[in-house]
Amino acid sequence: MSPGWSWYVIVLVAFNILGAAWLLWWTGKRRPGDPLPEDTSHYWDGDITEYNKPMPRWWINGFYIAIAFGIGYLLWFGGLGSYAGLGDWSSQGEHARDKAAADARLEETFKPYRDQPLPALAADPAALALGRSIFANTCATCHGSSAQGAIGYPDLSDDIWHWGGAPERILQTVLDGREGVMPPWGQVLTGMGGENAVDYVIAYVRALRDPALMRNNFMAAQGKQLYDGVCVACHGIDGKGNPEMGAPDLTDGYWLYGDDKQSLRKTITEGRHGIMPAHRGLLGETRARLVAAYVWSLSHKGDAAEGATPPQ
Fold first, then answer.
1. Residue 273, annotated as binding a ligand
2. Which ranges of 35-182 does DSSP label H, i.e. alpha helix?
3. Which fold has domain 104-177+277-306?
4. Does 139 count as an annotated binding residue?
5. Any transmembrane segments, and where (predicted)?
């Protein structure tokens, strides 16, 4: 708050307090010339008379005490512009203290699981329940309560991992996030293969999963040449992808953004930009480890039950 606004608040508060005190003083006593109660000539029902009489002294004193309390409250807790108050209290400070206390309790709860391997955590029912709870609070917004994802959000319950499915790779994804970028190749491909170039590439990409589609397929044959010139750098010559850069395997039949022709054309022409936010600061190491163990367990139920790490 700037000094000008701070003084504005201080003057406004002081004016209101002094105004309330003056009003109490002005109306709290009779003055010379005021009519006596019986001189008002205002009667109702024969025995009800309007009196011009101040409020009782105990009532007036109660208001003065409230004003004094309000002044003390403002001086102690701060309420006069940017004045911090004698008690050095702030809502931010109170929140920080409450958060520190809550974090200490959470730390005690999660302490037994610190630095534990993910397969071991996945084999522990208590740890798995904690991981499921953390997932529901943090991850389900994007990946769904069943972890099966949606268009643009990966299915975490299958065995397909664009960034690698080894336990430590999953933990790294949760802690530090991922950013997958598919560049827009529409203009480049059109310049190389004409106006049907994108459709050629779509035909070849679909044939990577089913080689039978390559037989007598002119479009797929044209698409292979374009693929080898543009796409092979990320997805590999065999289309198996590259987990180090998040390039998906094009032979497994899983399409993050949809497998219909319109979706594939949009992906190739305009590109895609997917971001998995980093959760290290939000969850911390141990909670991230627990939720990563839960995610890993979804596609390794047998291995999780035995607490063993499968071949990577």
1. no
2. 57-77, 91-110, 118-122, 125-138, 140-143, 167-176
3. Cytochrome Bc1 Complex; Chain D, domain 2 (1.10.760)
4. yes
5. 6-26, 63-86
Q: Between the CA atoms of 78, 79, 80 and 85, what dihedral angle is there, to the nearest 10 degrees?
A: 0
- CA–CA distance, 292 with 172 (Å, rounded to integer): 9
Is CATH 1.10.760.10 what the domain over 181-276 is classified as, yes or no?
Answer: yes
Let me know if the fold of 104-177+277-306 is the same as that of 181-276.
Answer: yes
Q: In this structure, are residues 226 and 249 in contact, taking their beta carbons and an 8 Å threshold?
A: no
Q: Per-domain residue ranges for the chain?
A: 3-89, 104-177+277-306, 181-276
| Average pLDDT of adjacent 10-residue blocks, the chain of 312 residues | 87 94 85 70 74 80 94 89 85 92 89 94 96 96 96 95 95 97 96 95 94 91 95 95 95 93 96 96 94 95 57 40
Q: Is 276 annotated as a binding residue?
A: yes
Q: Is 143 annotated as a binding residue?
A: yes
Of the candidates 30, 283, 298, 32, the one whose C-alpha atom is nearest the C-alpha of residue 176 is: 283
245 annotated to a ligand binding site: no
What does the block give as tokens for 246?
Answer: 């998040």
245 HSE (CA, 13 A, CB side):
11
CB of 106 closer than 8 Å to CB of 86 = no
Long-range contacts of 252-261 (CB under 8 A, 24+ apart): 252/160, 252/209, 253/209, 254/155, 254/158, 254/160, 256/151, 256/152, 256/153, 256/154, 256/162, 257/151, 257/152, 258/151, 261/199, 261/202
According to DSSP, residue 54 is labeled P
